[in-house]
Amino acid sequence: MLYSDYYNENSVLFKGFIVKTFKENSNGDYEAHIELPIKEQICPYCNHKTSYIKDYRIQNIKDLSLIGRPLFIFLRKTRYYCPFCNHSFTESNPLIRRYQHFTDRFYKYIYKELQHKQSYKLVAERLGVSLTSIIRWFDNISFSKAELPECFSIDEFRGNANNEKFQCNVTDPVKHKVLDILPSRRLEELCAHFTKYPLEERLKVKLISMDMSNLFRSAAHILFPNAKIVVDKFHVIRQVLWSLENVRKRIQKQFHKDRRRWFKNSKALLLKPSNKLSIEDKLVRNRMLASSYELERAYVLKERFYRLFRNKTKEEAKKYLQNWLLMAANFKIPEFKHCITTFTKWADEIANIVKYKITNGYTEGINNKIKVLKRISFGIRNFERFRNRILYLQ
After folding, report:
1. Whether 188 contacts 168, CB under 8 Å
2. What is the pTM of this model?
3. Contact 377, 385 (CB under 8 A)
4. Strand, helix or coil at 192?
């Protein structure tokens, strides 16, 4: 069936072209034969005008699918001859670039699709091209070194790329932007990356947000002497909640089966802040705490720790933390020994939470997106490709 008259008059698919024929093949594909109007050309070699035609070439081009069916274009390209310099050249056209076999809009659509969390294979199957072609085209994308902001956050994630188990994610928590992905969390790798920035730039960094990683802290002290380290609030509170959970698990082992099951099903009431519990929830919580004096003390430590972040200044927060550590030491609960040791080492960085109000929330969100990307791609072993895909997704 021919549609050439319709597409000559109404279609924007081939704007500026003459559609000789447009038909539907027996297999359901669409086939278009098009050419550009004959007009005077400027010779790319000598810049003289010419309208002499030497010959024609037919190029087979694949375009985006049309209503779910493949569209193949046969472009009749005119080759012109310049009598001034005796050179021949092919006319330029807005549909396809030189040495390509797919239209420009086809490539643009591919790069747009790769901005979504989906595998290369899925994009290749939907567009009817090979997986290796999609990967090869994407590998043409590269990202330069980002500028260092005054505040950035750093965190590790399990990437399993280039025989390294963990990679690092460096982000701007203020502007919500991924700055870079590092191939390893090792100290020498961190130093190698950040020493690419001049010392003048590194001295401008004022804040660094991180979890309680001694490795990251050591790197920050070496590379960014003017920066203040702020521990992520979530990671700090999580240590206390884990300690409370371990107390609850130890206590409930002493109960019979039914009571133990009830205790486990009600554990969320212990972890939730007291001011967010309803009256009914508080009654159930009180029953749980009445079963163990040690559990009650652990719960008091958890509630007192929440109050740390209500302090208005860093000095007040640091003094409150010292008092909390003394209380935890006096209670002598085995599960809180790790909290006491860790918080003592990180007291200054924890107190900075109150003063600077920055977190690793955005970074953790990016890490979750990376996990989704890994899962749908069944892993990406090539680190450079992995890095570029993460940076391209934002």
Report:
1. no
2. 0.83
3. no
4. helix
